[in-house]
Give the backbone structure.
Amino acid sequence: MPKNMKILGETIQPGESKTINMEIAKLHTATKLKIPIIVERSKIDGPVVLFSAGIHGDEINGVEIVRQIITQKINKPKTGTIICIPIVNMFGFVNKSREFPDGRDLNRVFPGSKQGSLASRFAFHILKEIMPVVDYAVDFHAGGASRFNAAQIRIVPNNAELKQLAAIFNAPFTLYSRNIAGSFRNSSEKLNVKMLLFEGGKSLDINTNIAEEGIEGAKRLLAHLKMIHPKIKVIEKAKNTIYIEKSGWIRAKSSGLFHDDNLIGKFVKKGTVLGKITDPFGKFEQKVKAPNDGYIINANLSPIVYEGDAIYHISNILVNAEDHLTEVREAVAGIL
């Protein structure tokens, strides 16, 4: 029989469903602002998995993924415990803003401080009160501003266990990305939480296909951990995730109106036209071409760009196709 669990001073018993409201500060109107933490526990012992979103308040696609995990009852575990926090940065969500009201990026102030800024205080309580009970986590994000990310998992290099979990989640792409100081992922790793960072879509937008990738990946992860209820259908994909070791940005060579050719997520050859930049007065058209073979994993969908703006993110070192298949088989075999 699993032990009682305590989060933010509240006890959750085995087999119990409970919503805990995290209240750290009020709005400037003196209105209470609650961040619901939705906990579902099985009577059978098992891992604790966290699904979180909305660390950046304008990244709505992640919020939608966690919402559907709840509404589809994927978060009702056969074994173990599933914690869902659909919106971490409720202040930013209310204001449709990336940052906290103090202007800080919550994903750059971890581990935070009990006596620090508002964002820092939130980071402190998340790490102190929630993360110590968590074994695995998926933190859902979207591209900032007008940048649209292809669905992808990001993991640190040289971590065999995270690589194996990424293979199980099986997003279209898995990017090797070093932890950033002050990030939720970096602080979670120090607490030995195995975290996958999901990126997909763009801010202030809900994309059905991206949401589906996140939901199905979460189901595959839970199935691997033997936590998912037998009634939940798990779809195995025919294609394996594509590991991307290195990538780079293509930047605008001129300012003007930007016309994207919608090649996000696709493999392109060197010289392929990805889009074009024009002026508003019909004087010039400048083609944007791929500098190398690779996958387009991000595109800036802003209709107006300035010289030097990052407009496409393209992979530039790919694992050989056969080597890649072998790599995925070995990764999956290592955790089955």
Observations:
- Helices lie at 60-71, 90-95, 118-130, 160-169, 184-190, 208-224, 321-333.
- Residues 208-224 form the longest helix (17 residues).
- Residues 39 and 266 are 38 Å apart (CA to CA).
- The radius of gyration is 21 Å.
